[in-house]
Amino acid sequence: MVVTTEGLPDWLGPVVRAAETVEPHQLSRFLPPESGHGRQSAVLVLFGEGDRGPELLLMERAGTLRSHAGQPSFPGGALDPEDGDPATTGPLRAALREAEEETGLDPAGVQTFGVLPKLYIPVSSFVVTPVLGWWRTPSPVGAVDPAETARVFTVPVADLTDPANRATAVHPRGHAGPAFTVEGALVWGFTAGVIDRILHFAGWERPWDRTKEVPLDWHA
């Protein structure tokens, strides 16, 4: 597994620089426990270029799943033993493997160009490594297993930075965080938090109304 920035499009430069300098606490207040507790996992933050310019690949989890049902997310999941060392290349292999299993994309067309600091999802005890990828050679994608994935879609970065599509999601338990209303979906939680920080530290963020609230469904 190789992480390289060679040959990337110029517009990804700010993301590369952000990944090289950002500190864990700048991405989230939820960081892996010092005890080492947590299930190692990885997600693929895949940038491509579509008809409307730069875009991100997302998927929507099936509504019948026991956890995070119906929630948009990055492709990804837990590390398997064959993925290797969680401290080195394990997350890279896991992110690409899970993305292939969930969306059908061809990993050979993906160039990994960065890795963000490990983050933590308390509700599921996942220690998540966001792996940054450039979709150098796009391949067809779609929901491989409808029991797990409702749909796979891309979102233009222009829509993610549009203030009209931004809001603060309020969980029934009182938690609040950034959200995006794009492609007929409400992106919130861990995924929205990572996108929000990437937009911010890449200098792509536009001023938006943080008082605009979007309530989550009772089962969210």
From TrEMBL:
Family matches, as Pfam families: NUDIX
Class of the enzyme per the UniProt entry, highest EC level: hydrolase
TM spans (from-to): none
Keywords: Hydrolase, Magnesium, Manganese, Metal-binding
Annotated region described as Disordered, given as residue ranges: 67-90
Limits of the Nudix hydrolase domain: 37-181
Alphabetized Gene3D superfamilies for the sequence: Nucleoside Triphosphate Pyrophosphohydrolase
GO terms, molecular function: 8-oxo-7,8-dihydrodeoxyguanosine triphosphate pyrophosphatase activity
Essential cofactor(s): Mg(2+); Mn(2+)
EC numbers for this chain: 3.6.1.55
InterPro entries membership: CoAse (IPR045121), NUDIX_hydrolase-like_dom_sf (IPR015797), NUDIX_hydrolase_dom (IPR000086)
Protein name in the entry: CoA pyrophosphatase
Species assigned in the record: Streptomyces kurssanovii
